[in-house]
Amino acid sequence: MKPQDAKASPDARTPPDARTSTGVSAPLDAMTPQDLVIRMLPPFGGWLALAALALPGGSPLRGAAVAAFLAVGPGAALVRICGPALRARRAQAPVGRREADFERHSDLLERLMLAVLLSVSAAMLVATVLIAAHAFSGDRVLLTLTLLTTLAAFCPRLRASPTARTAPGAAPRTRKGSTL
Q1: Residue 91 and residue 15: Cα distance in Å, rounded?
Q2: What's the distance, Cα to Cα, between the start and end of the chain in Å?
Q3: d(CA 43, CA 180)
C-alpha cells in the first residue's frame, strides 16, 4: 500500500461502506435505528395484543390486534433470524419469461408465507404444550408467544453458508448424505 493511500482512508482494511459519516470505521453488522425498529415490530405487536386484552370481550380492535399478532408476529421474528440463510439461494425466473422484479417479489412472497406458517405452527405448538400441562388459556398462549417473539427478536441472525457455484446447465452439487 502506498503512503498516499493510507492518508485517504483512516483504516485501509475497512471497506468504505462500513465507515460512518465521521470517518470512523464501524463493524459491518452495526445496527441502525431503522434496523432496530424493524427488529422490534413483532414483539411490539405481541405486547400491543396483550394490552388489547384489557378492552371489552367483543371489541373489534381487540380481535384485530390479537389475530394480526397470532397470524404474523412469531413467524416474522423467526424469519428475521433465518434471513441470511433464506437469501443464500435466490429465486430464478422461468426460462421463457424474464420479469425484472421476479426474484425480489418471489423472495418477498416466500418470506411472507413462511412467516404466516411459522406463526400458526408456533401458536399450535404452544397451545398443545399448555393443554398437555393442564394450563391452557388464550391469555397464556398469547403471553407465551409474546415472550418467545421478544426472545427471538434479541437473537442474532444465522449466517448463510457459502454456496458452491456451478456452471450453467450443470447439475447442482449436493453435499454428502443429501437427498437433493
Answers
A1: 28
A2: 46
A3: 36
Report how far residue 46's alpha carbon sits from residue 143's, in angstroms, rounded to the nearest whole number.
8
φ/ψ of residue 19, rounded to 5: -90, 145
List pLDDT tens digits, range 93-107.
Answer: 666 666 767 777 778
What's the CA gap between 91 and 166, in Å, rounded? Answer: 16
Neighbours of 48 (CB within 10 A): 15
User: SS3 for 58-94, per residue?
Assistant: CCHHHHHHHHHHHHHHHHHHHHHHCHHHHCCCCCCCC
User: How many CA atoms lie within 13 Å of 28's alpha carbon, on the beta-carbon side?
Assistant: 5
CA distance 174 to 176: 7
pTM of the model: 0.66
The whole-angstrom separation of Cα 57 and Cα 71 is 19
Residue of 67, 53, 59, 176 whose CA lies nearest to 123: 67
91 within 8 A of 110, measured Cβ to Cβ: yes
DSSP code string of 89-131 = S-----TT---TTHHHHHHHHHHHHHHHHHHHHHHHHHHHHHH
